[in-house]
Amino acid sequence: MAKEIIHSSEAPAPIGPYSQAVKINGMLFVSGQIALDAESGELINENITEETHAVMRNLEAILRRAGSSFEKVVKCSIFVKNMDDFATVNEAYGQYFKQEPPARETVEVSRLPKDVKVEISCIAAV
């Protein structure tokens, strides 16, 4: 029952005392990702669509590093700064889950790290 800390150089480094992901007992718990570019550390936030795709690319890099994929994701949590962006976020997010999408919730929050508009975390099988 040893846990394994997952780190992908293709996703942004944590900006606090947490791991990108933790693998244990065949499950992967991926920390919330925001739209930071892994190489430059710059925010990708020209618009909510671009920001959501950047978040999903970061999640994908971590999933891949852990030996998982979007097909194995069982649960996502989406945090948005403005619920008015729900449809746009949903459209971009949906492109990554074409069949058998995972369970999820979407919650409006007052503020997110670095004042981004969206943050997404997930749980996947490995």
UniProtKB/TrEMBL annotation:
It holds the Pfam family Ribonuc_L-PSP. Gene3D superfamilies: RutC-like. Belongs to the RutC family. PANTHER family: 2-IMINOBUTANOATE/2-IMINOPROPANOATE DEAMINASE RIDA, PROTEIN HMF1-RELATED. This is RidA family protein. It comes from Cyclobacterium jeungdonense. The lineage of its organism: Bacteria, Pseudomonadati, Bacteroidota, Cytophagia, Cytophagales.
